[in-house]
Structure formats: C-alpha cells, structure tokens
Amino acid sequence: MTEITSPNWKLVEVGRVIFIERGADAGKLAVIVDIIDHKRVLIDGPTTGVLRSSLNLRYAILTPFVVEKLPRSAGSPTVAKYYKLSDIDSKWAASPMAKKLASRATRSKLNDFDRFKVSLLKKQRRSAVQKAI
What we know:
Helices cover about 40% and strands about 25% of the residues. The protein has helices at about 75-85, 90-95, 95-110, 110-130; strands at about 15-20, 30-35, 40-45, 50-55, 60-65. A five-stranded antiparallel β-sheet has the order 4-3-2-1-5. It starts with 15 loop residues before the first strand and ends with a helix.
C-alpha cells in the first residue's frame, strides 16, 4: 500500500520564524504572530529587537524553523518565552543560510591587502590541486 506524505514546504503559519530581508529591521529574525491577509503578516521579535508590526511577505524569507505551540496573536512576553523554549537562536546559527550571511559579512569587511592575500591563497590551493591530479 502506498503511503501519502505531505511535502516539507515552508508554509506561512503562526509561529514560523522569518528572516527580514529589507527595511529598518533587515538582517534580523522575527516570528509570525498572526496572518493579516495573503500578503501581510503580523510579526514580533522580542529577543531579536524587532518591534511588533505588520510586514509584507515580499520583505521576508521563510526559514524552516517553527516556534511550536505558539498561540495566535500572542503578546511579546509569550512570544519570547516560546522562542527561547524552541531554541531558535542556536538552530539559526547552525543553519547554512546563517553561515553564508556570516561569510558574506566577513568578505565585505576585507580591505585591499586582505583580498590580495585571499587571492594568493586561492592560487596556492589551485596549484596544489593541479599537482595532485
């Protein structure tokens, strides 16, 4: 007998953790507290410094993390409590997206001499690979 399983989609749902891509809170995590309509959600991020506000979904990236059992339209203290219980910060730090953002930030802070050193190291690595082949 064939078993039907639901796909592992990232749905817009209460408790879904989002990464804010644009706006005043760009680069921060927040939690969807309520769904206003098909384009806007009410978000809150009491532990990340995001004030409770509405956000257009165009400016958010849905993450695979969900704050479990978060009640709909929960207040900031409740969101903070469930956020800490779900241990979202450590899950986010271990995610590939957070690592990629950290490496981008590091690379953007390089000065000219640091970029030169990186190019020399890449050149050394290429020559070592060519010798090994």
